[in-house]
Amino acid sequence: MSLLQFENISRIYHTGALESYALRSVSFEIDKGEFVSIAGPSGSGKTTILNITGCLDKATSGNYFLDGEDISEKSSNSLALIRRDKIGFIFQTFNLIPILTAFENVEFPLILNGGISQGERARKVENILDEVGLLELKGRKPSELSGGQQQRVSIARALVKGPELVLADEPTANLDSASGKDILDLMLELNNKLGVTFVFSTHDRMVMDYARRLIMLKDGEVESDKKRG
Ligand SMILES: Nc1ncnc2c1ncn2[C@@H]1O[C@H](COP(=O)(O)OP(=O)(O)O)[C@@H](O)[C@H]1O
Ligand SMILES: [Mg+2]
Hints:
Blueprint: E1 2-15, E2 18-31, E3 35-39, H1 46-53, E4 61-66, E5 69-70, H2 76-86, E6 87-90, H3 102-113, H4 118-131, H5 147-159, E7 165-169, H6 177-194, E8 197-202, H7 205-208, E9 213-218, E10 221-227
Parallel strand pairs: 3-8, 3-9, 6-7, 7-8
Antiparallel strand pairs: 1-2, 1-4, 4-5, 9-10
Bound molecules: adenosine-5'-diphosphate (ADP) and magnesium ion (MG).
């Protein structure tokens, strides 16, 4: 069964009297365990797709199904619960909390969710920090970490709740190419090992080459959708 499905999704922005299509009748399905890149030049609609997929934004028309559930008509409260329970986010600018250590940043979503003891939290946080290779630096604040290390912390934060879907909007855009490659290798490894579905956007050829499936956008439409052997 597909994990998520876009069915003729359009997203129109109204600015004054002007109507512009950020997405125009976009359709695709993504299965559990895929490693997919949404690619295309700036302005082609990548962020809009990820925001709708992550239940941060709603389509103007069309249907979006996640886990077989129609998301299109849900209230903002139920969307918040879906985000909390099913989706991890990784951002271009890492978005870590500056005054918290790496450990505390990763622990934060577990504290927000509640219902889990301090010991269990620590075990989960250390486990996932170990997976991303940052356990030894768990006491450092973001300002004491390189960009690549900060992105590793944010990957751990996205994964600590065990989401089925991780969304990353241009996760390597603020990294040099060597750290960018490290981050993609790590994402691929976690995808293989944990079976988590990754959907990441990029406009960078090198990053596209990592994808097992490449959905290319042009002016808000799917230009091509190719799987790699
Ligand atoms: N809040 C907004 N208001 C008006 N237009 C927007 C808004 N957000 C995005 N757009 C437009 O939608 C199109 C797609 O944007 P976006 O999804 O951010 O593209 P990408 O992430 O590929 O650069 C662009 O033409 C952009 O200008
Ligand atoms: Mg964008």
